[in-house]
Amino acid sequence: MTQRKIAEYLVEERKAHYHFTVKNNQPGLFQDIALYFDDRQDPDFVQCDPPDHGRIEIRKIWTTTELNTHLNFPHVGQAFLVERESTNKKTGKYSCELAYGIASKTPEQADPQHVLATNRGHWCIENSCHYIIDWNYDEDRSRIRTGHGPENITRLRRFAISIIKLTGARSVPQKMRQLSGNVRLVFDLLRMTKNSCSCALRH
After folding, report:
1. What are 53-107's pLDDT values in tens digits?
2. Is the separation of the CB atoms in 84 and 57 below 8 Å?
3. Contact 84, 124 (CB under 8 A)
4. How far apart are alpha carbons 170 and 142 in whole angstroms?
5. Which of 6, 26, 58, 167 could form an SS bridge with 85, CB 3.0 to 4.6 Å?
6. Torsion angle of alpha carbons 125, 127, 129, 135, nearest 10°?
7. 0.90 surpassed by pTM
8. By residue range, what is the domain housing residue 167?
């Protein structure tokens, strides 16, 4: 429901676009897209990255507009499947991940290569955010486990990290420690007072 509202807001009010990864927490949408791509043939685009951190990665993408009117989601321009293959050069360990998604941009506005690049950027941001949350908030040991508590606290932590990143801080953990020790800087960061000083945030 939250993503639907965000999609409607972005497209209808902001005249912008969305690019969403679809997961199992949206079972109907997820199953429809997964079923369509179940008997996929040749990908629409393949990207082979040069070895990085001892890994060889190959990314493939399949896109379709045939689900646009079938999916119960607003303003779908295309659906996609991304397959990420990774091989560790040293150990030979192989892994393969599938990611399903939808985007409001049509194929004329975003070809498969463009959609793949957007998805990769989104994936990198997600991984970075997950790492920061796990390492600095020790979220795996959180005792908030009932109702909407876990989801709400994660959203608050993501919001905090996003705000810190917007300041251009060189190190998010370092900035977190700095803010924890100086409440005045928190007020400056959130522009909560008339005399908030932005210059104090660029350290």
Report:
1. 678 889 999 999 999 999 999 999 999 999 999 898 888 899 999 999 999 999 9
2. yes
3. no
4. 27
5. 58
6. -160
7. no
8. 142-203
